[in-house]
Design goal:
Elements lengths: L12 E6 L5 E6 L8 E2 L2 E2 L3 E9 L2 E10 L4
Antiparallel strand pairs: 1-2, 1-5, 3-4, 5-6
Amino acid sequence: LVFPYLDSYGTDNRLQLFDKAGKLIYDKKGYSNDFNGIVNGKPLANDTYYYILTIQGKVVLKSFVTIVHLY
């Protein structure tokens, strides 16, 4: 996931990624646009995931991302 201009807000941010059941599967404080679909060394399954981006303690974006591996 890449958020344009995220670095202009410094490192006071957090990205949380949830599966369809609402289970938190990725949580990164100081997110730096480096999520690549791999969690704990394993690629996530092809599916839709939901995320929350918080900047300076305020939720600024809630949305979803669909992971599709082409291999």
